[in-house]
Amino acid sequence: MDVEHLMDEAALIVGRASNLVAFSGAGISEESGIPTFRDPGGLWDRFDPLELGGGDVFTSIFSGAGISQAAIGFVSEMLEVLQKARPNPGHFALGELESMGILRSVITQNIDNLHREGGNSRVIEVHGNIFRLVCMVCATKISLSREELFAMGAELVGLMQRGDLPGIIKLVSICPACGGPCRMDVVGFGEPVQDMALAMSEARSSDVLLILGTSGMVYPAAYIPEHAKKTGAKIVEINATGCCFQSLADVGIVGKTGDILPRIVERVKKLPA
Ligand code: APR
Question: 7-17 pLDDT, tens per residue?
Answer without folding.
Answer: 999 999 999 99
